Amino acid sequence: MSAYSIFALARNALSGHRNWPRAWRSPALCGSYDIAIVGAGGHGLATAYYLARRHGLRNILVVDKGWIGGGNTGRNTVTIRANYLREPSIRLHAEGLRMWREMSGELGFNAMFSERGQIDLIQTWAKLRDVKRRQSILHLAGVPFDILTPREAQAHVPILDLDGPKRLPILAATWHPTAGVARHDAVAWGYARAADALGIDIVQNCEVTAIRRQGGRVAGIETTQGFVAVPKVALAVSAHASVLAQTADVRLPIETVPLQAFVSAPLKPMLSCIVNCPGAVYLSQSDKGELVIGGGSDPVPSYVQRGEFAVLERVVSNLVELFPVLSRVGLLRQWAGAIDLCHDTSPIVSKSPVEGLYLNVGWGSGGFKAIPAGGAAFADLVATDAPSAAIEAFALARFERGRPLYETAGASNRD
Amino acid sequence: MQLVPCPHCGPREQGEFVCLGEAPAHPVSHESLARHLYGRVNAKGVSVELWWHRHGCRQWLRLPRDSATNRFAP
Lengths: 415, 74
Ligand SMILES: Cc1cc2nc3c(=O)[nH]c(=O)nc-3n(C[C@H](O)[C@H](O)[C@H](O)COP(=O)(O)OP(=O)(O)OC[C@H]3O[C@@H](n4cnc5c(N)ncnc54)[C@H](O)[C@@H]3O)c2cc1C
Hints:
heterodimer, A: alpha/beta, FAD/NAD(P)-binding domain, D-Amino Acid Oxidase, Chain A, domain 2, 8-stranded mixed β-sheet, 9 helices, B: alpha+beta, two-stranded antiparallel ribbon, 30% strand, elongated, binds flavin-adenine dinucleotide
């Protein structure tokens, strides 16, 4: 893999940028592999990379029905943070923040991680109680997270209006200085390029139609390009987790629902951090100047990647109430991803009841931030067959044991 | 007072227990209980859903809908 550098840029500029090498190969599908990862989103690609890098495994397939990063990884609003409620999530995401800071250097690809901090505006007493509890838990884990007055929050977010009438009063705010954003596509491309350079086959436009079982264990996968014999199958397919797992008779506590986002016309720099209003809306400003805006998930389950208008309307009315200065800003694009919402809104990073079938799904509205740490922990599980301490709590069996991990800090936990 | 043979604690006094009456014919396993409580088919296609007409007739409806198109099936 030739390194991207200022010298490579200068050299290629001289030849009119016609001679850049391809970032990854387009290999043909082989008939057998040691491990097949289904889904070339951030999680599937990071898992492949860490299997090669940390465990020296090479005979690995990453297969996607569409293209690299074309699922939720390419549709998300890129908030990266560790201010969760549950200890296992906090630990995983705090480790993730460390990995995000080093990712561009390690992959030789600019993921454009920008640590800019996050403000949450608290508008109900219930949420204030929740964040006070979270503050204690986060401080025990060493994650910076402080409670501010509305005026202190306004110092971080000058466009916030505190004087006009509000449907709900702004009671307080929280400040999580280590939160950040990154470039979504670059994360997928960076892991794809690094995994490909380590010899992993990434096959796009090939749908897995079923997992074939032989008794209690995995025998291979049926694809639109034929059968692949493989003893270990790792699912990182987000929305389609239930559909694929059921071909191996594994039923998951997941529902697929749309989650939408919007982007405004580009504006001069006006917002230096991420702002989240738990009941209503969240936003940040991209390097291009667009405001990247999201809200809660749609109320009706669906695989259709198209959000409903009532949700957009609610998000925008809340946006304008809190930031009246934005009332005349045009929205350029609106879209939705189909997210894999787990019953307790925590992910499933786990073995399954079928030997050789591994699950990295249920990330719902919050799995972009987990791409490095989740991918690395999942790679450890697939390679060694033993869950590391980091992911024990995310086992599928937690539901049988009566230990669901209810979360309150996700974009889908509105109100 | 009789002794109840507890498989976990050995024979113990009845006062430590509450009798819940006749046991269901098929004892429920943790697996099947978890499947019943949390498991979802989450079909990509038609499935029958419960809808509550909250701001209308307030009836509960069973409606088939296709989650791949959002259309209610005829
Ligand atoms: C609007 C929106 C905003 C979001 N905002 C944030 C945020 O701010 N912060 C955050 O942390 N997270 C956020 N998320 C969540 C985040 O995007 C996801 O959790 C994360 O990207 C999941 O990554 P993944 O690799 O597991 O899945 P994906 O990126 O969805 O990749 C799954 C891949 O599997 C492929 N696939 C599916 N079925 C098959 C099959 N049968 N055969 C072959 N391939 C198949 C798909 O084509 C897809 O490429 C948001 C999501 C959305 C939709």
